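pls design
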């Protein structure tokens, strides 16, 4: 092969190689085309072999021609390879493209009522109380009778609920308050007793801004020797100050009636929003009602076999939604159950 033959071969081969590269239908095809036109048996290798037989002034020209041929075929192969790779990726569908980034993971959090419940539990545990639990489906004895509310007692009509028949109507029901946990605790534990019992409660109520058929309460029960109303008031005051993080919070007790406490009182705290100047949250009274309280009625002690001559007790119960509403200025109880993320993610 002389120089002219070599140059002609490279020129012809470059055109044929370009056509073969464009015609390669798959990445495997392309690899074999590349081997044919750039590999050991390619025209470029043949010309390289022949160069040694050329005269010294012909060799640079031949060398340049081989370099140009290789560069042209290599570029054409690279272009075709990226076309074939793009087509293969499109065939595989969207797949996982780590370069696209994500949408940002949204982390959930505890519901506002659960947050309040846990905070209250912490406060009471700090005061030396234990957490007690009772069933949401309760029997007549624990929900009413042992609490001094016999079958015909008018207090029952204020706490109507869903009854589960089990063959004997009005025997098993969704509990109307957390007070039955007082009975369950006193039935199973010897005094002294210091417990709080948070949980879900149910009543036959029409839903309005502050009442719901399903809501949460927290019960507190202390049984010890020599307990007086001063202990009851002092405990409530301590927890209210901690809860609202405000030393100026005042508590108010007004005479009330609960069949299981004697004397009984309605429990209210001074409005933390207006500091008693009067606002929408406290209906311009300066006070917000939290729940009920009183000294455990001696009849209740008798029902659970505790000697009322030896032991005294106090109890109180309040609504957890009510506490959350007061603390965050929420004026509609429905928002707790709507599960609207725009509301929930604010807390
Ligand atoms: C009771 O349930 C008594 N068991 C409280 C008690 C315990 C008194 C221990 C004495 C000793 P009352 O029915 O008032 O009391 O309910 C207490 C609180 O629960 C209310 O002040 C309110 O905060 C909340 N509550 C009552 N009904 C509803 C309702 N339908 N929706 C939302 N919260 C409610």
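designed seq:
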């Amino acid at each position: 092969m002389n120089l002219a033959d070599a140059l002609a071969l490279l020129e012809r081969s470059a055109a044929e190689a370009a056509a073969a590269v464009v015609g390669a239908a798959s990445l495997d095809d392309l690899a074999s085309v590349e081997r044919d036109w750039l590999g050991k048996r390619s025209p470029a290798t043949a010309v390289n072999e022949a160069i040694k037989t050329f005269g010294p002034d012909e060799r640079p020209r031949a060398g340049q021609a081989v370099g140009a041929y290789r560069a042209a075929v290599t570029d054409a192969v690279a272009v075709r390879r990226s076309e074939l790779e793009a087509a293969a990726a499109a065939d595989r569908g969207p797949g996982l493209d780590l370069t696209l980034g994500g949408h940002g993971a949204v982390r959930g959090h505890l519901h506002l009522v659960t947050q309040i419940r846990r905070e209250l539990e912490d406060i009471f545990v700090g005061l030396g109380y234990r957490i007690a639990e009772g069933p949401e489906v309760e029997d007549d004895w624990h929900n009413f009778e042992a609490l001094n509310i016999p079958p015909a007692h008018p207090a029952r009509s204020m706490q109507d609920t869903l009854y589960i028949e089990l063959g004997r109507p009005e025997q098993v029901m969704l509990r109307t308050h957390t007070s039955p946990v007082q009975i369950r605790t006193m039935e199973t534990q010897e005094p002294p007793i210091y417990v709080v019992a948070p949980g879900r409660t149910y009543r036959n109520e029409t839903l309005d801004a502050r009442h719901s058929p399903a809501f949460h309460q927290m019960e507190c029960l202390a049984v010890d020797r020599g307990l007086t109303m001063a202990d009851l008031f002092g405990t409530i005051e301590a927890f209210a100050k901690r809860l609202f993080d405000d030393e100026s919070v005042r508590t108010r007790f007004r005479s009330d009636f609960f069949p299981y406490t004697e004397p009984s009182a309605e429990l209210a705290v001074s409005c933390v929003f207006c500091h008693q100047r009067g606002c929408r949250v406290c209906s311009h009274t300066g006070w917000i009602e939290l729940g009920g309280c009183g000294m455990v009625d001696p009849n209740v002690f008798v029902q659970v076999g505790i000697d009322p001559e030896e032991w005294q007790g106090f109890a109180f119960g309040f609504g957890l939604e009510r506490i959350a509403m007061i603390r965050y200025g929420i004026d509609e109880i429905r928002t707790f159950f709507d599960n609207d993320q725009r509301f929930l993610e604010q807390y």
